[in-house]
Amino acid sequence: MLYSQVRGLPVVTLAEAAEIGVVKALTVDAAARAVTHVRVGARRGRGTDALPWAALHAVGPDAVLVRPEPAADTATPPAPSHHEALHHRILTDAGDERGTVQDLAFDPATGRVETVYTALGTIPADRLLGLGDYALVVRAG
Questions:
Q1: How are beta strands 48-52 and 34-41 bridged, if at all?
Q2: Rounded to whole angstroms, how far apart are CA atoms 51 and 38?
Q3: How far is CA 76 from CA 70, 71, 84, in A?
Q4: What DSSP letter does each residue of 31-60 carry, written as one string?
Q5: Are 137 and 93 a contacting pair, CB within 8 Å?
Q6: What is the pLDDT at residue 77?
Q7: What is the pTM of this model?
Q8: DSSP state of 46
């Protein structure tokens, strides 16, 4: 599934089928090559919540389904800081520029990143090193 296809999808609770918001962004851990959180915002509003990938039941073409909330005694670690992947500059570990991220393919069942799409071609996920404020860093080669 593509990152661009998920943006704007409704986020719906599995048990009540209640819409809790829409997907605003995906938090990507480039070093782990995975989507770790889904950033959910209200249709009209500024606030966003970060749902860990483990809280999702399914990611489909029409909606993102969220599992019921875990018991109150289950601690959920805080969401990591978010760096937007789309339209981010791409640099190699040698310092060479490789364009910008146009899209990102991931497995909707596991959240594993598969491919980064750029105007200059594709970058396989095994070359991802890190994502920060300035750039997505990939292994040269």
A1: antiparallel
A2: 5
A3: 9, 10, 22
A4: TTTEEEEEEEE-SSSS-EEEEEGGGEEEE-
A5: yes
A6: 63
A7: 0.88
A8: S
* Contact criterion met (CB below 8 Å) for 42 and 95: no
C-alpha 126/C-alpha 120 separation (Å) is 17
Q: Where are the alpha helices (DSSP H) in the chain?
A: 3-6
Name the token pair of 33. Answer: 């090559």
Query: Which residues does residue 97 pair with via DSSP β-bridges, in sequence order?
Result: 91
What distance, in Å, lies between the first and last C-alpha atoms of the chain?
25
Measured CA distances, 93 to 40, 87, 88 (Å): 32, 19, 16
Which residue carries 């080669």 as its tokens? 141
pLDDT band at residue 82 under the 50/70/90 scheme: confident
Do 37 and 52 contact (CB within 8 A), yes or no? yes
Report whether 8 contacts 22 (CB < 8 A).
yes
CA dihedral 16, 20, 23, 27 (to 10 degrees): -90
Q: What is the maximum alpha-carbon separation in the chain?
A: 50
